[in-house]
């Protein structure tokens, strides 16, 4: 089914959108109200849900007409490279994100049960070790790109451990995923192969010898997922944790280092790290427009007819910033608004994600307490693309600290690196005491 859009459909791609998406949302809101026609790539159309109440209606499946299954939409895509790129992000997979009802509940339970087995204090210790090792790489330089050198380097190092692999494997995972996501053609295909090889080897290793880790918990959950279902869920967990967690950290940090109310809190506390995270989730949610939904039958929805096989994207970013009469207490979710979604597909890992982001930022600011942006925040570059709100760079300067400096420093920890693999069961030396990797006790 072809959508017949107005010529003034908004464009969720290109430099103008990356520079100022809120201007695009405001213009769409003015012209179309709660649901607006957009192009997510040249020739690929969608309905963008930009009204807060409309977004909640989709996410909570009001009227029972909403589905996550987009196979009909996918089948009708043109055979263009742009369409192929969108299938990479939105293409159907046998996992929680793309399923409904009973099937979704089964997958969802596996995810929530397995994540509930991660002990917060052990996760926190892992974050500290990973972050200290990263900070030690640039602390003496007096400058860093906190997006590339810090935020984007954190989630996969943590998840590589949570999934049950030694630290020596994390660089391979990071390279595979960044090749897969950033590049086209040959490099992208190589990255794709390497990523699936990593997952395949992971499943093989944990089937043969289960451990105290997410992979083994997925494999042995009473729901009895098949090997293929486990594979798709490991892919989902890695992809769902990488980009949004990295962006949450850098989006919040960019506020803290450019706004005096946060800046002073690095030393004496006006607004906290937690406030910065909530503000980032509300005003600049990392999963800006990544809420794909479909209708089961034609629906007249907040003034727009929507047909089956048409893509509907919930814009968490536009809904959260809608100047609306919906009172604050009805849309708060603790201050994050829809930053973690809502309804049956609401992020099942928001607690560990917040713990990771909070610990990472506090670790950074406790070592480097005079971080300062090298350019005004308005001049920061954002990565292009319709789905995420993600900084390309976050350049900062600070007073360098040296390895021989007294006081607590990132060098107090043995950095996990490919040359010093720490097997899951081996002790990891940590600031002042010996502890074990999270799953070993
Ligand atoms: C620890 C890292 C994370 C993991 C493992 C994770 C995992 C997941 C998974 C498995 C889902 C699908 C749930 C379902 O369909 O039932 C999901 C959904 C979602 N996550 Fe997360 N997530 C993480 C971090 C984040 C962060 C940092 C954000 C926001 C900044 C975020 C925002 C969302 C949103 C908005 C959805 C709903 C998508 C939809 O409506 O289709 N997640 N997440």
Automatic annotation (TrEMBL):
Which top-level group of life is the source organism from?
A: Bacteria
Q: Tell me which Gene3D superfamilies the record gives.
A: Cytochrome P450
Spans annotated as Disordered:
402-441
Which SUPFAM superfamilies does the record associate with it? Cytochrome P450
Q: Where is the composition biased (Low complexity)?
A: 415-427
**Which PANTHER family does the record associate with it?**
CYTOCHROME P450 YJIB-RELATED, P450, PUTATIVE (EUROFUNG)-RELATED
The family line of this record is:
Belongs to the cytochrome P450 family.
- Record's protein name: Cytochrome P450
Q: What is the source species?
A: Nonomuraea indica
Lineage runs: Bacteria, Bacillati, Actinomycetota, Actinomycetes, Streptosporangiales
